[in-house]
Amino acid sequence: MVKIILIGIIVALVYSQPDLRLTVADWLSTASDFLVESVKG
User: Fold this and answer.
1) Which pLDDT score, from 0 to 100, does residue 7 have?
2) What is the DSSP letter of 41?
3) Which of 22, 1, 29, 24 is closest to 11 using CA atoms?
4) pLDDT tens-digit profile of 1-41?
5) How far is CA 4 from the centre of its chain?
6) 12: left (phi over 0), alpha (psi -120 to 50) or beta
7) From CA 13, how far away is CA 37, in angstroms rounded?
8) Could you tell me the maximum CA-CA distance found in the chain, to the nearest angstrom?
9) Least buried of 1, 10, 14, 31, by fewest C-beta within 10 Å?
């Protein structure tokens, strides 16, 4: 469920800010770290 929400946010960011690819990439890295921490609990 969380992954679906994150994917939705990612898609929204990509479509709303196509010029800020580097920013999106950094955000993806942060989201990935957040997922790892969430899984570790």
Assistant:
1) 85
2) -
3) 24
4) 888 888 888 788 777 766 666 677 788 888 888 888 888 87
5) 11
6) alpha
7) 22
8) 34
9) 1
CA-to-CA dists, residue 1 to 6, 7, 23, 28, 35, angstroms: 9, 10, 24, 17, 12
CA distance 2 to 14: 18
| Two tokens, residue 39 | 């899984």
Q: Which amino acid is at 8?
A: G
In angstroms, the CA 11 to CA 17 distance is 10
Per domain, the residue ranges of the chain are 2-40
Give the amino acid at 33: D
Instruction: Give the residue carrying structure tokens 């994917």.
Output: 7
CB count in 10 Å sphere of residue 32: 11
Tokens representing 28 are: 């993806």
